[in-house]
Write a structure and sequence with these properties.
27% of the residues lie in helices and 28% in strands. It is of the alpha/beta class.
Length: 216
């Protein structure tokens, strides 16, 4: 039986003036799988994730997430951008508490639980501006995990992390994938992340040049 589809792109492109960040692309991502998205800087990886997240509108084509337009299923999508976008003068817990307040239905994990999941002390009182870059990445990931979304889009989640921290987060993402979440992630640390992936997708100049299952 064919797996249900988490995200589908139908002839999707994205132009910024005369420059094509994403050339006409038709592809789909199966639910409950992990996709490792590779490519050089400027290949279109971040644009692809932002379009699926509904944060950028395609110039042409159609995007469906769980069969609906992205804005119709925002509660099922969580996005972690390359920039952490945290408030420097707040603690990690304060940052996450503010984010959770945007979801008044109580569907989010608590800030304490989210921070524990990524290996940070929830009662650490120093402000984000005093955190290392690796710690900031963990807080950003904790924020992305709070909504318990079905589709998790991660743009360079291992940026500025040492190898030990990266391996710990890969183990965490493997648990999420095993629990049924769909993961799409970009990274320049392909060899470390490859064991996590069900499929590898390579972008080149705004086009998917290869898409394959990892070698056994």
């Amino acid at each position: 039986m064919q797996s249900p589809v988490a995200a589908r792109l139908l002839d999707v492109s994205k132009l910024y003036g005369p420059a094509a960040a994403l050339r006409p692309t038709t592809t789909e991502f199966a639910a409950g799988r992990c996709y490792l998205i590779l490519g050089e800087n400027g290949a279109g990886k971040s644009t692809l994730l932002r379009i699926i997240a509904g944060l950028a509108q395609p110039t042409s084509g159609k995007v469906l997430v769980f069969g609906e337009a992205p804005h119709e299923v925002r509660h099922r999508i969580s996005y972690m951008g390359h920039e952490t976008m945290l408030y420097d003068d707040m603690t990690a817990r304060e940052n996450l508490r503010y984010f959770a307040s945007l979801f008044p239905d109580g569907s989010c994990l608590t800030p304490e639980k989210s921070l524990q999941i990524v290996g940070l002390l929830p009662n650490l009182e120093k402000p984000i501006k005093a955190y290392s870059q690796g710690m900031r990445q963990r807080v950003s990931l904790a924020r992305a995990l709070m909504t318990q979304a079905d589709l998790l889009l991660l743009d360079e989640p291992f940026s500025n992390m040492d190898q030990r921290s990266t391996l710990q987060l890969i183990a965490l993402l493997q648990q999420l994938r095993s629990a049924g979440q769909t993961l799409l992630l970009t990274t320049h640390q392909a060899e470390l992340a490859r064991p996590l992936a069900d499929f590898t997708v390579t972008l080149e100049a705004g086009r998917i040049s290869t898409a394959s299952e990892p070698a056994a």
